[in-house]
Amino acid sequence: MVLDEVGSPLAERELPDPKPGEGEVVVEVAACGVCRTDLHVVDGELDEPALPLVPGHQIVGRVLDSGERFGEGDRVGIPWLGWTCGECRFCRSGRENLCDRAGFTGYTRPGGYAERCAADERFCFPLPEGHPDLQMAPLLCAGLIGYRTLRLAGDAERLGIYGFGAAGHIVCQVARHQGRRVFAFTRAGDERAQAFARELGAEWAGDSGTTPPEELDAALVFAPVGELVPSALRAVAKGGSVVCGGIHMSDIPRLPYELLWGERVLRSVANLTRRDGEEFLQLAPRIPVETRAQPFPLGQANEALDRLRSGDLSGAAVLLAGRG
Ligand SMILES: [Zn+2]
Ligand SMILES: [Zn+2]
User: What is the tens place of the pLDDT at every residue in 268-316?
Assistant: First the structure.
């Protein structure tokens, strides 16, 4: 499924098989999760897509021809971070997520809305057998970046989650496993999402404009809505953090300094490191994280994106390539 021009629907097209470059493997894609970042790419809110582009960066599949690290038939996951330079100040200080020259799957490199995909094997994750492709795919971005977002919130006990979609519902389970208390915020009146949050262990769920029953120690903002930032700052206690987990957000409205006062912290999360991925993919099956995923055939990628755009999904949308 190919994006020729931003703002236009993806086109179904027959492309030549990808040829592996140096250090790359070709993967037969079984499933690819649909991430909000894909919407930002398709809608033109991120400015460097390598057009024409195959989007998608939550890829579960099997290696077709062995490389150095993986053998034929190995089950692997391909995430958003597709390549880093290894040389810049960020790479050399354990912050490859901030690499100046990073390559991103399904954005600056071809992604997984396809039957086959080439990837640098150093950035692929080995995946255990036994979990269905459908449930595994959302772990590769919603899970990984959600986990990094949670980690940057420190040891906050009372945790607010703004936006209870793919990332929110995974992070809620990790947070509960860690013994934190979860307060979930959804679009106004989204009773389905609020019930879902309570089912996953949130002790309170309500509309994002409302005040939680007590102060929070941290808030994670997964919805791409700048207006939520002042609301979240208002909800956190002194010394608390508001961590924005998305790659794109609408403008944050002007806010009085008083909302930041009291050593409150406002920060973003950018991308992931391989360490985040390794940690999270080891932790997830031990909890175990159960993802709610809605399957779509690969050819219905546009419909899956539309459903995500309108909020008409419970959990995560996943494209199934349909050969496995
Ligand atoms: Zn670098
Ligand atoms: Zn993503």
Answer: 999 999 999 999 999 999 999 999 999 999 999 999 999 999 988 878 9
Phi, psi of 28 (to 5 degrees): -80, 115
Distance 271 CA to ligand 1 centre (A): 13
Residue among 290, 238, 283, 289 at smallest CA distance from 259: 238
Residue in the block written with tokens 């995909």: 117
Nearest to 76 by CA among 38, 27, 113: 27
107-154 pLDDT, tens digit each:
999 999 999 999 999 999 999 998 899 999 999 999 999 999 999 999
> Which residues lie near ion ligand 1 (Cβ < 5 Å)?
84-85, 88, 91, 99
The phi and psi torsions of 306 (rounded to 5 degrees) equal -65, -40
Ligand nearest to the CA of 81: 2
pTM: 0.94
Using alpha carbons, select from 118, 204, 124 the residue that is nearest to residue 158: 204
CB 3 within 8 A of CB 13: no
